[in-house]
Amino acid sequence: MTLLSVENLTVKLGGHTALANVSMSISKGEIVTIVGPNGSGKSTLLCAIVGAIKPTKGKVTKAPALRIGYVPQRLHIDATLPMTVARFMRLPYRGRALNITATLAMVGLHHLEDQQMTTLSGGQFQRVMLARAILHKPDLLILDEATQGLDQLGSATFYRLIETLRTKLGCAILMVSHELHVVMSASDRVICLNGHICCHGTPEVVASTPEYRALFGTGTQGALALYRHDHNHSHDHDTCDHTHHKGEDHV
Fold it and tell me: φ and ψ at 15, to 5 degrees?
């Protein structure tokens, strides 16, 4: 079942063509990742999909009553604003406390409901953002470089959590990331973007294309194999239950 399709999408920003004739789709249960160099239009595409940017040409078609959860690239919270994790989860709607508790537990943060948002570590903050995005059980979860600022281990743990949530919720996942070594293993399909779609397909197919190698070189192959070895032999659980302290980078 196709949840969302993009047809011949063109976006011009300030006279500059950020995206040209982009077409793609995502089906139920898929993990699709968009990769590309800085300035390639990745975030612009996501903004057009969620309706934050109006396309110059083309259209975005969504399945009827499609529920979308969205984790933005960054979110700034005023350090002087008192806001607990539970209160943040309720914005902009009122969520039942039971749902909030259960959802935080899904991302390993059931013990932080009463903690101030400004005291969370980077990894904890990202997981709260993720929990808020899945609070109402989305059909499609969209993440825009959600692991930005996390170290390599933290990013790998976060993506394993994403895979677990896909199974638990039965949702599709569309994400933008610059971490090729992790993304190429976590994804069902990869779309390589550079103002237009350069190539797309399974991770193995995309990594072998001349267009991909022209943008990223061939170094990803070794890192991809290393991650798969670590992923397949790891004794870690799907959700991280380590104790975290303020300032840590791990998820």
Answer: 85, -10
Domain ranges of the chain: 2-67+140-232, 78-136
CA dist., res. 200 & res. 203, Å (int)? 8
Q: 149, 116 in Cβ contact below 8 A? A: no
Give pLDDT tens digits for 102-154: 999 999 998 999 999 999 988 898 899 999 999 999 999 999 988 877 777 77
Q: Which CATH superfamily is domain 2-67+140-232 in?
A: P-loop containing nucleotide triphosphate hydrolases (3.40.50.300)
171-230 pLDDT, tens digit each: 999 999 877 766 777 789 999 999 999 999 999 899 889 998 888 886 544 333 333 333
Q: What is the pLDDT of residue 47?
A: 93
Residue in the block written with tokens 């899904």? 106
Q: Model pTM?
A: 0.81
pLDDT given for residue 250 in this prediction? 33
Give the per-residue SS3 of the chain.
CEEEEEEEEEEEECCEEEEEEEEEEEECCCEEEEECCCCCCHHHHHHHHHCCCCCCEEEEEECCCCCEEEECCCCCCCCCCCCEHHHHHHCCCCCCHHHHHHHHHHCCCHHHCCCEHHHCCHHHHHHHHHHHHHCCCCCEEEEECCCCCCCHHHHHHHHHHHHHHHHHHCCEEEEECCCHHHHHHHCCEEEEECCCEEEEECHHHHHCCHHHHHHHCCCHHHHHHHHHHHHHHCCCCCCCCCCCCCCCCCC
